[in-house]
Amino acid sequence: MKAPARLGDGVDAIDTPALVIDLDAMDRNLATMAAFARAHGMRLRPHAKMHKCAAIAKLQIAAGAVGVCVQKVSEAEALADAGIDDIYISNEVIAEAKLARVAALAGRVKLAIAVDSAPGVQGLADAVKAAGTTLDVFVEIDVGQGRCGVAPAAAGALAHQVVSHGQVDRGMRFAGLQAYHGRAQHLRGAAEREAAVRHAVALVRAAQASITSAGIACPLVTGAGTGSFVFEAASAVYDELQAGSYLFMDADYAANQPAPHAPRFEHALFVKSQVMSRGASHAVVDAGHKSHAIDSGLPCVWSPAGGPVPAFSNGGDEHGILLAPDGAALPELGGTVWLVPGHCDPTVNLHGHFVGVRGGLTVGTVDCIWTIDARGCVF
Amino acid sequence: MKAPARLGDGVDAIDTPALVIDLDAMDRNLATMAAFARAHGMRLRPHAKMHKCAAIAKLQIAAGAVGVCVQKVSEAEALADAGIDDIYISNEVIAEAKLARVAALAGRVKLAIAVDSAPGVQGLADAVKAAGTTLDVFVEIDVGQGRCGVAPAAAGALAHQVVSHGQVDRGMRFAGLQAYHGRAQHLRGAAEREAAVRHAVALVRAAQASITSAGIACPLVTGAGTGSFVFEAASAVYDELQAGSYLFMDADYAANQPAPHAPRFEHALFVKSQVMSRGASHAVVDAGHKSHAIDSGLPCVWSPAGGPVPAFSNGGDEHGILLAPDGAALPELGGTVWLVPGHCDPTVNLHGHFVGVRGGLTVGTVDCIWTIDARGCVF
């Protein structure tokens, strides 16, 4: 797949629609989160399901991250192929063929995975035994998402199953608790998010008690996202932060009420689009659902210079419709329109490349073109 | 990118999530639409923005289609590279660099494109003159979508501009009117869709009058989609049908009230998923927004054997949550769950391959694996 720009191009020459990173803003976000984790004595393992890009994972690791998380086996394989050597699949795998791939990958990189069922542990044990490899296993508990994860009281039995297999086969090491509260990330009020994490912390403590009762030590608790990490960091229970979106900051996270004293992140990910048609009272840009995901709402129009922007309205898969606010002008035919995606993760997944710009979106130049290595890696 | 299956595999061996075509159902849909077009004396130029796949385009052309439509220049390039030689970009292009690619492509395949502005025609004229190539040009009119296209009364002037350039440079041939009503496709009531097309037909007639007044003949009117094509076919104004989704039939189109005497199409596109986690009252499958688009609603669970199915609830980017209807059982851990996407076009765009199955979804085998050639071709 061709890239929409060449190194050294001016911003104007980037083809549209294209996924553009403001590298200066991204660098500041990267440093801010790294400094936060260091200051709070937390491990940082950013979620690479967001960027799916080994070049970015390497920057995060160079800034102090211990490795990355992913959600899918094929994501882990793609990032391993591109040189990332410490990967946590923070999700369950059940299919035998996929478990064989997990076990094989554990022979190439430092690998961890989550489990939430006895058959899942057994399947994993069989796979690593057959492959002769070793990996870390986190027991996932449901801390309020209502999706994967066992109840806290069941954590001890599952940890015991992992430890028992580990003693026999040496293929699995019990690594701790996966305790991510996805739903908490997008609660708009800071107090609501704090309350959700307080509830999660209580469930983590209950799971730790269940594990202790089974005579097992719980080495690590991992979780947290961009909407809530300040609360997990303050909890004295979580050890590792999995936040990912902080690096790019999408429109949905920007709509959250900031938590007091929380570090601020800037928009660093944009879709560059072009006006391809003009009506008397609307403009049409060449970016639609195939250029930006809309599961968390439509993108927002962004003015690099500040000032009023048109409203973005749904134009379908390949178009966006811009309507002018009162008195504001609409961009002319051929004009550039910058969009901030509603949700960065699935937006990134729609593109083959990031175009990295230095010097701002108005007069900057293309400094890097990064392949989105794990794009489309759903299985 | 790896494919999620191998030729000859049983359905059970297809990795998840995967995009699976029931080839027997697709063949019936293909034949039904081809027969309809023949019986009504209509040209069929299916929209390949839906399947993005040269192998499928070739089947459509073998069944009588005159060629395909696409929405993006990079889609046209990808399909041309894969052997499709009659392509209509049913959309406007404004950027100079992209127009140069259009003009170059016109030297490789029979190419057509839409215009809706004087600068658009001028840019295209400059590009084909520089390249020394020739292409067909359709003037797009807005027939109710409120997106691209000029008002009918402006069609004559634009057609005149195209014809004038054509006489001077021989690079452009005025081919007729692009008159697609996207919004009409998804109006639920058949009478509503019929009324919308009746309005579109009146606007087409007005545009034809404007073109005739300019002393120009209008060779062809092209438009229509899966929700409305029976009405365009009955109009005596449209010559060419662009419907695409009929081949796969998504959940959104299936929710339309069928028009009287309209041919029926079967669901032929599915996402195969697997239960990866079970709670007491819910199951979690490994397919979320990164496996199926949700712009037209969540997918529906499909039972190949018939019978009650669980309700699909939003589980985020990588998960789907199944809730049991009253009294019905939830699938067990490891069980296969078939999903019918809400909207086929952007769902296809998320995957690297189609896995084609013959013999049904229960006991069938993998008969073909087709690359989604123009996947992610947004620019």
Describe this structure in words.
By secondary structure, chain A is an alpha/beta fold. The first copy, chain A, folds into two domains: 11-18 and 265-371, Lyase, Ornithine Decarboxylase, Chain A, domain 1; 24-250, TIM Barrel. Chain A is 31% helix and 21% strand. Chain A contains eleven helices and 17 strands. In chain A, strands 1, 10, 11, 12, 13, 14, 15, 16 and 17 form a nine-stranded mixed sheet that branches. In chain A, strand 7, helix 7 (190-213) and strand 8 form a beta-alpha-beta unit. In chain A, helix 6 (155-169) packs across helix 7 (190-213). The two termini of chain A are 21 Å apart. The mean pLDDT of chain A is 96. The interface between A and B is large, with 64 and 64 residues.
